[in-house]
Amino acid sequence: LDSTMTSAKYPILTESQKHSFHQNGFLILENYLSDNDIDSMRQEIRHLYNELEKNSDVSSSISNQNRIFVGDSAKNNENAQDFFMESSDKIRFFLEKDAPKMDPKGEPIWKYNKVGHALHDKSDVFKKVSFQKRIRDASQELMKYEDPTIVQSMYIFKPPRVGGEVTPHQDDTFVSSEDPERPCIGFWMALEDAHRDNACLWAIPGSHKPTTRTRWVQRALLSEEDKSQLLGDPKDTSPMGFIMLNEENPYFSGDVADQYVPLEVKKGSVILLHGRVLHQSFPNVSTESREAYTLHIVDRDQYCKTNWLQRRDSFPSYWATD
């Protein structure tokens, strides 16, 4: 696979890089982040963690109530789902479900699975990294967006021994676009080496070509016709649910396990992920963490108005000009 190109700044994607992305549904760019960028983000997330642990209300978006177990939002737990839905303009910490099993000698912050979903907006450190001109330009070149808009960001810990599995999924399920030709794009930034042993990403090349299978939505925002497409128990009253869009997607039927390839990358690399490419990661059973920072970008006017993640205000835009 011609998925890796090396350059220091990536002012413009090459034709070979663009072809690789559209052929495979992903593209690896090495040496994308500077050591200073990486150190700044890792220090900042630990600063935010320390403020959380002290219960210091330094920001309206950080408080001691801003943590639930990751996965609770997908269960019939109204409080957890509200907590999750209201994180679009906040910095919230989500506990790793196996945190009680973590090594007591490990770094305390590793009890968390991730932090989301507005680091790019509410932290100056993450804002500086997120709104680089080259990120906007790459998303426009690859997806033909008119107004690239970051709609969510996450810091992912994947802590040693207890870092949970992320099951196969398409990002466009959770960050949906109304335009099937221009779904979201993800920027997955490796803050540490990511390899098979510490649960790197795996993806199926070409799996982005069929349309998106499902969409995760807020039930209250659906029309009556759309509600009839909801999966699961029709009596379910929880705030969020899945709608079936393409039941015939071949990558969700039958055994496709042997089609996955590992996306092993060095610290400082970024993986660009087409919104429909099927990807996953396994539990981290190693003694190494695998920290990463991720962004999801859509074309502003095409962002689906029934998506689970909605802002009370508009999505921010702080794109650098150079």
Low-confidence stretches: 1-8, 56-76
Percentage of residues in strands? 15-25%
Sequence of strands across the biggest β-sheet: 1-2-13-8-15-6-5-4-3
Secondary structure tally, helices: 7
Give the N-terminus to C-terminus distance in angstroms: 32 Å
Radius of gyration: 19 Å
How many individual β-strands? 15
Rounded mean pLDDT score: 88
String of helices and strands: EHEHEHEEHHHEEEEEHEEEEE
Q: Tell me the major beta sheet.
A: 9 strands, mixed
Keywords:
322 residues; alpha+beta; nine-stranded mixed sheet; four-stranded antiparallel sheet; 20% helix; globular; disordered N terminus
Structure description:
The protein is of the alpha+beta class and about 325 residues long. It is about 20% helix and about 25% strand. The chain has 7 helices and 15 strands. It is globular and about 50 Å long. Residues about 1-10 and about 55-75 have low confidence and may be disordered.
Topology, element by element:
Layout: E1 4-6, H1 15-24, E2 26-30, H2 35-53, E3 67-69, H3 78-85, E4 91-95, E5 112-117, H4 119-122, H5 124-130, H6 133-143, E6 148-156, E7 166-169, E8 185-190, E9 201-203, E10 214-218, H7 224-227, E11 240-244, E12 261-263, E13 270-274, E14 279-281, E15 292-299
Parallel strand pairs: 1-2, 3-4
Antiparallel strand pairs: 2-13, 4-5, 5-6, 6-15, 7-14, 8-13, 8-15, 9-12, 9-14, 10-11
